[in-house]
Amino acid sequence: MTVPAISVDGLRYSYGDLEAVKGVSFDVQPGEILGFLGPNGAGKSTTIKMLTGQLTPKGGSARILGVDVALDDPEVQAQIGVCFEEKNLYLQMTALENLEFFASLFGIRDVDAMEVLRRVGLADRARDRVGNFSKGMRQRMMISRAFINKPKVLFLDEPTDGLDPVTSAAIRTTIREEADRGAAVLLTTHDMFEADELSDRVAFINEGEIVALDTAESLKLKYGTRSVLVRLRDGNGVREEHLPLGGDGSSARLAELAGSPDLLTIHTEEATLEAIFIKLTGRGLEG
Amino acid sequence: MSLARIWRVLRKDLALGPRSPFFLWALVLPVGMTLLVQVAFGSLFEPVPRIGILDEGASAITASVAEMEGIVLERFDDAGDLRAAVEANDLDAGLILPAGFDDAVRAGEQPPLEFFIGGESYAANRIILSVTTIDLIREVEGSAAPVEVEVVSFGDEGLPISARLVPMVVFYALVMAGVFVPGSSLVEEKEHGTLMAMLVTPVRSREVMVAKWALGLLLATVMSVVTLMLNRAMGARPAEVILVVLVAGALTSMIGILAGVVAKDSTMFFGLVKGTGVLLFAPVIFYVFPDWPQWIAKLFPLYWVIEPIWQVSVMGASITTVWQELAIALGITVALIPITAFLARRMQAQMAGQ
Question: Is A248 part of the contact surface with chain B (CB cutoff 8 Å)?
């Protein structure tokens, strides 16, 4: 049986009286991307901070590659890569210097930092100071730094937050490549499209608790309502009809509308992860 | 604790140093202050008399000149070289002592004596060297001085103000390099989140602290030694001066790390250093005003490093005379380690909780 790369059991953390993480449990297998989906303040970042050794758990247990995080073992840190939400790079250093320095902290002597920069499209800016980089370039630097030690476990905290679609897509491709290499990825995001596109499984976290954990497809099937949207000409306007799939009389009605001379379009409607999240928690993901 | 990781963090800080205004300021300030003090109190361009001697025998005059602290002596083997050095104004004066000169003087003969004076030499130096030479010849002759000179000092007896300001200049070298550089570097890493970025690698927070402390120790030691050299205060035992300065660097750097750990951001760090600056600075004032009750200076932590520096560098004392002060300084440094370690753990939790 494969040992999970990340194994979390009843993990808890509180800031004073505020219980931020209330006993979450989940596993992430090597090569798997687990999307941690939830609004700001749901407990996503606190969970990552406990798993990366920044915070000491106040309850439960967590293992990275089979080692208890409470042991604060540098050998565990040597196997992980972290991309923070905050862009914490050395701005006075060049891109190359940043990567070489962090590689040295991992004890890597023969790092090919240029190749890493090439992967994120920054090879031509390798010798420029990071302070002169745009927001998107800095984010790509953050990703490349997280990959510098070829980690077995990757923690990515909002890796595409606030980026343009092109940069976001490039970063998502790189994350998928890392998972394909065999890295377990814990991806926190409040971007439902990103979670849907990248994640093998999705965990919904709300107010410190995991309220659902499954593949995106299963969650949609379980909590969503499948329907079709039919748009018809109605005099000078447009009339819409939502027909639930499998509902009583839906098939007959759909056949009737399909033959109508007023028919404009028919679209299948699928529940979004956000809609499911709202259904489960009563709140949106942006909150 | 990994020395390799400490070295990597320290190396990064040393590489980033020239890009940091604080680092540069720590290098410039002590040098600037030294120049200011020396210009203000006239010790910068103070001409030291320089004499060259070609001694064809083994004259007592040469030995006496060599022992004089206020005169620079250069020995020559060739009269032509000596003359050329005086002509080039490399020396203020040149003296050729023929073989058997002392015996001839004692026998009451009047042996020839060649004494060159540089045309561009300071008048004061010419007078000093001429009078000194004549006095030394009289000593060799064994005759009594023709006049008895009564020296009357005006003003208070004691060290010149430029010497009494040495502790202040060294203090600035120590505090800028030892307190500000490591402290501000740590705070900057906290503010920019780079400290947290390091702490999710195999680097432990104690290794970062040791690296920052070593940065302060190294810079404080180098800058203090440079400052003492510029002030011509390395004393007769430079190795002992360096040892004393190392202890001073260790304490000031520990204070810097402590301030850096306590401060949440740069504003708080500078407020903290400014607020406690008077406690750090206080002992220095007692060297400028020696009439004040000196025991008060002992109440302040940096007294225990400034006093040994003063004694060993300026006063020329042996390090053994200040071992108690050094022991107390090391004791304070060691006592600060567990306090800093405790606060560092709290700092890490606070950073992660933000």
Answer: no
The answer to whether position B149 is within a domain reads no
**Which pair of tokens denotes residue B304?**
């225990």
Predicted confidence (pLDDT) per residue in B88-133, tens digit: 888 888 989 888 888 888 888 888 888 888 887 777 788 888 888 8
Based on the fold, state whether residues B183 and B317 are members of the same structural domain. yes
| ipTM of the prediction greater than 0.85, yes or no | no
B166-174 vs B238-262: helix axis angle to the nearest 10? Answer: 50
Q: Cα–Cα distance between A87 and B339 in angstroms, integer?
A: 31
- Quick one: fold of A6-215? Rossmann fold (3.40.50)
Tens digit of each residue's pLDDT (9 = 90 or more) over A159-201: 887 778 888 888 888 889 889 999 999 998 877 888 888 889 9
The alpha carbon of residue A142 is apart from the nearest alpha carbon of chain B, in Å, by 10
Which residues in chain B are closer than 8 Å to A53, comparing Cβ atoms? Answer: 199-200
Structure tokens at B195: 């400290």
B189 lies in the same domain as B240: yes
Look-up: residue for tokens 């259904």? A279
Domain count, chain B: 2
The whole-number pLDDT of residue B146 equals 67
Tell me, yes or no, whether B182 and B245 share the same domain. yes
- B51 and B23 fall within a common domain: no
Cβ-defined contact of A104 to B20 (cutoff 8 Å): no
- Chain B CB within 8 Å of residue A80 CB: yes
Same domain, B257 and B284: yes
User: Is residue B247 one of the residues assigned to a domain?
Assistant: yes
Between chains, do A84 and B197 touch, taking CB under 8 Å as contact? yes
In a domain, B201, yes or no: yes
pLDDT band at B32 (very low <50, low <70, confident <90, very high): confident
The residue-averaged pLDDT of B276-285 equals 80
| CATH number of domain containing B110 | 3.40.1710.10
Please indicate, yes or no, if residue B150 is contained in any of the structural domains.
no
Q: Are B169 and B33 in contact (CB under 8 A)?
A: yes
Would you call B54 an interface residue with chain A, using a CB distance cutoff of 8 Å?
no
H or E stretch at A271: none
Q: What is the dihedral of CA B176, B179, B184, B186, to 10 degrees?
A: 150
Range of the domain at B52: 47-141
Cut 0.80: pTM above it: no
Whether B18 and chain A come into contact, CB under 8 Å, resolves to no
Whether B196 contacts chain A with CB within 8 A: yes
Q: Provide the pLDDT confidence category of residue A55 given band limits of 50, 70 and 90.
A: confident
Domain ranges for chain A: 6-215, 225-269
Among the listed ranges A221-225, A231-235, B12-16, B207-211, which one has the minimum average pLDDT value?
A221-225
Are B52 and B37 members of one domain? no
Q: Are residues B85 and B118 in the same domain?
A: yes
Chain B touched by A211 (CB under 8 Å)? no
> Which residues in B lie closer than 8 A to residue A78 (C-beta atoms)?
201-202
Same domain, B282 and B198: yes
Which chain A residues contact residue B198 at CB under 8 A? 105
Distance CA B220, CA B222 (A): 6
CA angle A160, A161, A162 (to 5 degrees): 110
Residue A80 to residue B200, Cβ atoms within 8 A: yes
Task: Give CA separation, B316 vs A96, A263, B310, in Å.
Answer: 50, 104, 8
